[in-house]
Specification:
This protein is α+β, with helices and mostly antiparallel strands. The chain has a single domain, classed as 3-Layer(aba) Sandwich (Cytidine Deaminase, domain 2), CATH 3.40.140. Helices cover 30% and strands 21% of the residues. It has a five-stranded mixed beta sheet. Strand 4 and strand 5 form a beta hairpin. The protein is globular, with a radius of gyration of 14 Å. The mean pLDDT is 96.
Length: 135
């Protein structure tokens, strides 16, 4: 379990990552930090595209940064949105998070003191994933 001071630090890192977002269409800057089981941290921001289906969310961007460094197990995902209410990961991000972790903690923060503090199992019950493949 992350300590509160470390969680605050990770939220600030996610907020800093959001400032790098490329979002000329929605103007919705999202940042994410993925922490691996070994404690390494990877950041990501959303990157939009005129063809909306090609947009990548901050969470998946951070996970893909992790995978590019040959890491494959997530311990924690921290998300920041510039809103008064925290936002949960979208369905696509939930599925990708599930690919690299079961039971992983997800903390969504925003510009208020409000947070969502949950797990991927709660956000994506009965998920299909690597465990279903019998490997």
């Amino acid at each position: 379990m992350e300590t509160e001071p470390n969680l605050i630090r990770l939220i600030e890192l996610a907020k800093a990552a959001s400032k790098k977002a490329y979002c000329p269409y929605s103007k919705f800057q999202v940042g994410a930090i993925v922490v691996t089981e070994s404690g390494e941290e990877f950041s990501g921001c959303n990157v939009e595209n005129a063809s909306y289906g090609l947009t990548i969310c901050a969470e998946r961007n951070a996970i893909f940064q992790m995978v590019a460094q040959a890491r494959h197990r997530i311990k924690l995902v921290v998300i920041y949105t510039p809103t008064k209410e925290p936002a949960s990961p979208c369905g696509a991000c939930r599925q990708v998070i599930n690919e690299f972790a079961t039971g992983v903690r997800i903390v969504s923060a925003c510009d208020s003191e409000k947070r969502i503090d949950t797990t991927i199992d709660h956000l994506l019950p009965g998920a299909f994933g690597p465990n279903n493949l019998g490997n």
